[in-house]
């Protein structure tokens, strides 16, 4: 790993149910960088995040997170899953849900320490949820739930933040607030890897895009990915006016 790399995947393959879901993936994310992981449904984006989180085994290759393996780094990575992957009918309030983001750091049966409490409070304030801290999570709106998930990830004070579809189903002001927050976090040094289907927003907000379709088809700063052929290959189509139009690369 070079000095500024926070995450590095080299030659990573993942097999699930006897099928090769990721093949020979190389990907780096450096300190203060926001990388968008883009690709069609089933491209392996969530699988890649889950491999980094040590939730899935790799069949080949290496994953390095600040000179640690995924097993060693577990609990230090901030992870925002897709909203529907979280158990919202669990009877806990917002503050407790955010504190449980630190469970892998502090242990399951321990009472929260002062550090846990401070990290939780800071995370709540960063996503503007401090006023709602006693609200049961089952009573929250979609946008409030998304902010709980982000606060939960921030509660570990991560150097690496993984976001799985963080903008899906959010109104424009909530999307903007989160975009600004992610921008501030990268300025402070956090490395962010984000999956999204919002291609124009990704091109607008990310420093670099990685186009994935089982393997990395192309990667680079958004303005270097203006060749329509790259996008058609990444999405496995021969022609898609809507795709190219949404990216502004159809001229
Ligand atoms: N546990 C599993 N067992 C077998 N196959 C799986 C498993 N989990 C995912 N897959 C398959 O792996 C492929 C990649 O899935 P993944 O969820 O990583 O894609 P994705 O790029 O995140 O898609 P989407 O944009 O739809 O969220 C899909 O074909 C999926 O069916």
UniProtKB/TrEMBL annotation:
Residue span, ABC transporter domain: 7-238
InterPro entries: AAA+_ATPase (IPR003593), ABC_transporter-like_ATP-bd (IPR003439), ABC_transporter-like_CS (IPR017871), ABC_trspt_anch-rpt_ATP-bd (IPR022508), Metal_Ion_Import_ABC (IPR050153), P-loop_NTPase (IPR027417)
Keywords, ordered alphabetically: ATP-binding, Nucleotide-binding, Transport
GO molecular function terms listed in the Swiss-Prot or TrEMBL record: ATP binding; ATP hydrolysis activity
Alphabetical list of SMART domains matching this protein: AAA (SM00382)
Cell wall biogenesis/degradation found in the keyword field: no
Domain of life according to the entry: Bacteria
Coiled coil: none
Keyword Transport: yes
Family named by the database record: Belongs to the ABC transporter superfamily.
NCBIfam families to which the protein is assigned, alphabetical: anch_rpt_ABC (TIGR03771)
Name of the protein this chain belongs to: Manganese/iron transport system ATP-binding protein
